[in-house]
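During the reporting period, our protein records have gained a structure token line. One record among many is quoted in full directly below:
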Amino acid sequence: MLSAKSLFQEILDNDESFRLFCSIAAGGESQGGWENGRIAALLPPECRALAPKVARHGADEDKHGRIFHALMKKRGLSAVDVPDDTNYTMLLERLGIGLGHARLRSEEPLTERDVVVYLAHSRVTEQRASEQMELLCKHFGADPDLGRAVRMISADEDNHLAYCHEELLRLARAGHGPAIQRALRRCALAEIRVYRDVSLAVMAHMGRILGWPSSRARLLAAGIHAVYAYERVAGWRRMVSLAMPQRRDALGGPPLPAPGFA
């Protein structure tokens, strides 16, 4: 029977597919670490109070990248180049979502509007990350090798999502509500398309590594397209709602270390 758990288990049991999975995850997390670090450095004077939280966000992402590298190292594996068609962050940037790398490499301070764009982008992508890590925790939280890593990363992603909700609501109260909603909707609609394309690409690469028959590949592709159809009609709305999180100031304080991983 084809299930999310059996699919992930097959990927994790094979060294080559596991290495690709961890390389893709590590690359995305490390990229997020760099982006948040640059944003923290470039925040405008009126948003400088955010700098420690943005820096904490970046430090968490860097930590996640190191965890995925450590998981590979534990199995005697090293990272592989991430195929362009699986590079989620790069594909979003090409659609103009979030703050572009050319902008972040400059020394020009960001504007308050840039901060809105950054937080809206983070709110949408952290929703996806939180859901994905929740799924991995459900199926592998008790795994002796993977469990501690996915539980730690999942807790961090939940904190990142809470932080985005809280800061966007603060900016909405300051008069940025319409701009926030426009940015959230634009980002969410782009993200579900990129997520579909990346999911199809990842499954295609995994299928080649694991020798999946064409019938299985078609079934998985149909499932991915079905998820996209749902998200295009209604599912994207979960990514644009804002509610005050139960945990306030989720990124206050220093990042938690990752003992045994990095």
